[in-house]
Amino acid sequence: MRRIIILLLSFIFCLEVGMRIAIWRALDEIVPKNATYSMEVILLDNSLTWGCSAYGNEENRYMNVFYSLWFISILNSKIFCEYQSPYITLRVDPPNLNYYYWSFHRMGFEEDRRYR
């Protein structure tokens, strides 16, 4: 039992720290020095009474999000929801207005071509 708790806590710690570092490095690559950006982390509500909708977001506060709960909500939404939206979106204003979304395959942001 003790070993399972230690493994679970180490997994949560690695997930929390890893996501913060990955987002920080991805923002450092994409956002120019004098540009402003808007980032939203979508938290999903997967309860059967409320359906599959976003119940809140954290704008520009990616360090304050509990990514372990966020990751669990993503796994639950894969089971209950037919259509998926981006989980993290990023908008960079100057020099051009560019939109990005979070890619788990790259562990970074990819340009959203729908807004071009």
Write the layout of secondary structure elements.
Elements: H1 2-30, E1 37-45, E2 53-59, H2 67-80, E3 88-92, E4 98-103, E5 108-111
Antiparallel strand pairs: 1-2, 1-3, 3-4, 4-5
Report on the structure:
The protein has 116 residues and is of the alpha+beta class. The chain is 37% helix and 27% strand. The protein has a 5-stranded antiparallel sheet. The longest helix has 29 residues, at 2-30. It is globular, with a radius of gyration of 16 Å.
What class would the helix/strand composition place it in? Answer: alpha+beta
- Please report the distance between the alpha carbons of the first and last residues: 52 Å
Mean pLDDT score: 76
Low-confidence stretches: 53-57
Beta-strand residue fraction: 25-35%
The SSE string, one letter per element, is HEEHEEE
The main sheet comes to: 5 strands, antiparallel
Q: Taking Cα atoms only, what radius of gyration do you get, to the nearest Å? A: 16 Å
What sort of overall outline do the alpha carbons produce when their principal axes are compared? globular
Strand order of the largest sheet: 2-1-3-4-5
Helix content: 25-40%
Q: Give a count of the beta strands, DSSP E runs of length 2 or more.
A: 5
What's the short story on this structure?
Helices cover 37% and strands 27% of the residues. By secondary structure, the chain is α+β, with helices and mostly antiparallel strands.
Comma- or semicolon-separated keywords:
single chain, 116 residues, alpha+beta, five-stranded antiparallel sheet, 2 helices, 5 strands, 27% strand
